[in-house]
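Work Package 4 report. The design task specified in the project plan requires that, given a folded chain encoded as structure tokens, an amino acid be chosen for each position. We show below one input record used in the internal validation round.
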């Protein structure tokens, strides 16, 4: 009988704890109430953050009883260790919390649902080893602390549009994570995504710095989009064996040892530097000069570059073929997009922008871009067409996005380039000017251009400015390659020949004006030093436009 009485006493004690609850005073105005597995934090102050704890909390003896946490509206912060190792905690709701301190939900292994609409900062190891969290939506978070989500092995997706800083090990060993989109992140910490073995795609359009081992061991990674990247530190992508295509934007100036070590799946590397970035066998370039790394490996150590195609900007193939490391790539091809100098508006108020690409031979090409025309000009969908070589092998579609802006898509049947990599026109973009548009030079914009070839070649441009010339005497549309207007190189001299006295302007293939001079009738010789393979567009104010290759 005595034993039975003790049993009933213990049972009654537990029953009253879960049904009627426990209450703890956290401050003069804040309290915590545990009732039926729900821990509610509230305050009578206008705004108050929870206190920090070292190891134990007021509810330490009840951690396994907590199933849900509700943080009421006036509570603005969760203190250090507050809900650490609440092993049966499943859900957390917080409406106005802005700060989550270190270890706040450390090893809450059953946590599956958390709502954080106003959180801006997440501290060290705040969600370490929360293995049952599958998705995170944190619309206002800007800073993710050291090991914040380390070993969250059930996490599959992230939505963090405002994160700018991610410290080391932030998502280390999140082995179920498949994709990451962080449009505003600037720095990715050391081992931030280390051993995220399911991670297939990463989109971080504003990231500048990738710290050591950031994506090391991401063996499923196939796509990396980082157009503003400047620094890739040691072993950042080693060994990402599924990575087949890589684009290194012109903003990159620092690549450390082993950055792409053992990325054995690489087939295409796209670089955007006009001059090859120096890479050395025992040294690498840094912002401070040449660093001696004691013979540490090259960025592509363990990769058979002789089987990789290197895609370089127009006119730079010879430079890369002579540069250490880059010359060891098996194939070097020139790839790029070139908006031709536009033809001036005709007497009917129409004109054309010719779009040309450097594209690899025998590949299927697909993609889209947006074009914004100046006021008074509209896209002529009937006359905008693929070049005669490509017509019939693909279709064009046009979508109006906003005033004066259209999206043009190429949907291929079998859009292929012929022979080897070459410079060739792919389409004409036709436009019309109304009668109110005055004579002069106007600026059109080609934006968000994104083409992909079937061999993995990626051709991307965020913005290309194109000059449109509207003349005072609207007579005819000039033709590129006018037979009465000739230009060619003789050594480092550019010879231009035409029957007119006129202004001659020389442009790069990207539309940058290189020089302008006035010539009389006949031939003019202009000193013009450049390397072999350089393409220039020469425009005569009366004769037309021609393209030259040195």
């Amino acid at each position: 009988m005595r034993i039975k009485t003790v049993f009933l006493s213990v049972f009654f004690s537990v029953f009253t704890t879960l049904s009627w609850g426990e209450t703890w005073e956290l401050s003069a105005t804040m309290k915590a109430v545990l009732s039926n597995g729900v821990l509610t934090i509230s305050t009578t102050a206008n705004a108050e953050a929870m206190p920090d704890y070292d190891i134990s909390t007021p509810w330490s003896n009840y951690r396994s009883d907590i199933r849900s946490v509700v943080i009421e509206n006036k509570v603005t912060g969760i203190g250090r260790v507050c809900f650490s190792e609440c092993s049966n905690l499943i859900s957390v709701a917080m409406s106005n919390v802005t700060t989550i301190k270190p270890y706040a939900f450390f090893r809450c292994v059953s946590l599956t649902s958390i709502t954080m609409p106003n959180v801006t900062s997440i501290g060290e190891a705040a969600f370490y080893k929360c293995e049952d969290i599958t998705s995170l939506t944190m619309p206002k978070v800007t800073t993710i602390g050291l090991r914040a989500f380390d070993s969250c092995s059930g996490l599959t997706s992230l939505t963090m549009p405002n994160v700018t800083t991610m410290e080391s090990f932030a998502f280390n060993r999140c082995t179920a994570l498949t994709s990451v989109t962080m449009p505003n992140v600037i720095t990715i910490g050391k081992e931030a995504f280390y051993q995220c073995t399911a991670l297939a795609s990463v989109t971080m359009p504003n990231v500048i710095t990738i710290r050591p081992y950031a994506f090391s061991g991401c063996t499923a990674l196939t796509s990396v989009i980082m157009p503003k990247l400047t620094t890739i530190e040691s072993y950042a992508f080693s060994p990402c064996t599924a990575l087949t295509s890589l684009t290194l934007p012109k903003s990159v100036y620092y690549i450390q040892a082993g950055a792409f070590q053992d990325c054995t799946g690489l087939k295409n590397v796209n670089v955007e530097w006009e001059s090859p970035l120096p890479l050395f066998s025992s040294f690498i370039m840094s912002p401070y000069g040449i660093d001696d790394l004691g013979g540490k490996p090259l960025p592509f150590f363990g990769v058979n570059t002789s089987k990789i195609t290197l895609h370089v900007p127009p006119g730079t193939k010879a430079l890369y073929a002579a540069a250490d490391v880059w010359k060891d790539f098996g194939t070097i091809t020139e790839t790029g997009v070139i908006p031709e100098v536009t033809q001036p508006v005709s007497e009917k108020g129409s004109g054309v922008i010719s779009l040309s690409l450097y594209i690899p031979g025998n590949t299927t090409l697909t993609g889209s871009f947006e074009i914004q025309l100046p006021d008074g000009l509209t896209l002529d969908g009937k006359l905008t067409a693929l070049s005669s070589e490509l017509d019939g092998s693909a279709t064009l579609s046009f979508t109006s996005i906003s005033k004066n802006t259209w999206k043009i898509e190429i949907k291929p049947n079998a859009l292929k380039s012929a022979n080897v990599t070459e410079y060739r026109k792919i389409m004409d973009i036709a436009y019309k000017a109304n009668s109110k548009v005055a004579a002069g030079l106007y600026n059109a914009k080609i934006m968000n251009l994104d083409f992909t070839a079937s061999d993995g070649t990626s051709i991307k441009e965020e913005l290309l400015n194109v000059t449109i010339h509207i003349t005072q005497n609207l007579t005819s549309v000039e033709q590129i390659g006018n037979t009465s207007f000739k230009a060619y190189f003789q050594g480092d001299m550019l010879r231009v020949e035409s029957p007119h006295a006129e202004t001659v302007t020389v442009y790069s293939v990207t539309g940058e004006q290189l020089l302008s001079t006035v010539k009389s009738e006949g031939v003019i010789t202009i000193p013009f030093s450049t390397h072999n393979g350089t393409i220039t567009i020469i425009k005569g104010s009366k004769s037309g436009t021609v393209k030259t290759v040195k």
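Confidence is low (pLDDT under 50) at residues 1-19, 281-295, 415-421, 472-482. Validation will be extended to a larger panel in the next phase.
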